[in-house]
């Protein structure tokens, strides 16, 4: 059903198509990452792309490495003052769990944080999300010891 893996230089890729499309509303107080993971498991979305907008009351995010070395030592930041967010993300699986990789911007009164949203994302008011399920892509997340992070791997 899927397309074969291909290479272009060092880059690897697969070609697929869009499957199901989901539009979801998350409500005040929801833990966004937990709710997204539960939804992805329930709907068995193996590969997908996320679009998210709305508000977060609080979140923890990685805003970069402390220095540009591999493996990285993450530089953590957090907020709990209620912020508008706009984020994009991917859905792949690592083992028997979905691995949601979500990068976004969170702003309030001219102050903006950008980074990898990872933990304790509590929804403020509501979040609107769209998931595009990708078909024909046979890929997972796999921990890469040399990089110290989970990376996209084609099967």
Give a structural overview.
With 155 residues, the protein is mainly beta. The protein has a single domain (23-132), classed as Hypothetical protein, similar to alpha- acetolactate decarboxylase, domain 2 (60s Ribosomal Protein L30, Chain: A, 2-Layer Sandwich). The protein is built from one helix and ten strands; from the N terminus they run E-E-E-H-E-E-E-E-E-E-E. The strands form three sheets. Strands 3, 4, 5, 6, 7 and 8 form a six-stranded antiparallel beta sheet that branches. It is globular. The model has no long low-confidence stretch (mean pLDDT 95).
Key phrases:
10 strands; 155 residues; 60s Ribosomal Protein L30, Chain: A; mainly beta; 66% strand; globular; 1 helix; six-stranded antiparallel sheet; single chain
Tell me the radius of gyration: 16 Å
Query: What does the main sheet amount to?
Result: 6 strands, antiparallel
Instruction: Give me the CATH superfamily.
Output: Hypothetical protein, similar to alpha- acetolactate decarboxylase, domain 2
Given the C-alpha coordinates, what overall shape results?
Answer: globular
From the 3D structure, determine the CATH topology.
Answer: 60s Ribosomal Protein L30, Chain: A
Order of SSEs: EEEHEEEEEEE
Q: Into which percent range does the helicity of residues fall?
A: under 10%
Q: Structural class, please? A: mainly beta
For the termini, the CA-CA separation is 14 Å
Compute the number of strand runs. Answer: 10
User: Which residues form runs of ≥5 with pLDDT under 50?
Assistant: none
Q: Please, how many helices?
A: 1
User: How many domains would you count in the coordinates?
Assistant: 1
Please give the CATH class: Alpha Beta
% residues in beta strands? over 45%
């Amino acid at each position: 059903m899927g397309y074969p893996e291909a290479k272009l230089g060092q880059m690897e890729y697969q070609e697929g198509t869009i499957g199901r499309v989901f539009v979801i509303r998350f409500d005040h107080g929801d833990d966004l990452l937990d709710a997204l993971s539960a939804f992805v498991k329930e709907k068995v979305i193996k590969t997908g792309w996320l679009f998210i907008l709305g508000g977060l009351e609080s979140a923890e995010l990685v805003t970069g490495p402390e220095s540009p070395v591999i493996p990285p030592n993450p530089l953590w930041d957090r907020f709990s003052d209620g912020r508008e967010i706009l984020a994009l993300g991917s859905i792949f699986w690592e083992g028997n769990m979905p691995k949601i990789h979500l990068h976004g911007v969170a702003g309030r009164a001219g102050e903006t944080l950008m980074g990898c949203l990872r933990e304790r994302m509590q929804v403020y008011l509501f979040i609107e999300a769209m998931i595009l399920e990708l078909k024909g892509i046979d890929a997972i997340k796999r921990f890469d010891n040399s990089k110290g992070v989970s990376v996209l791997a084609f099967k």
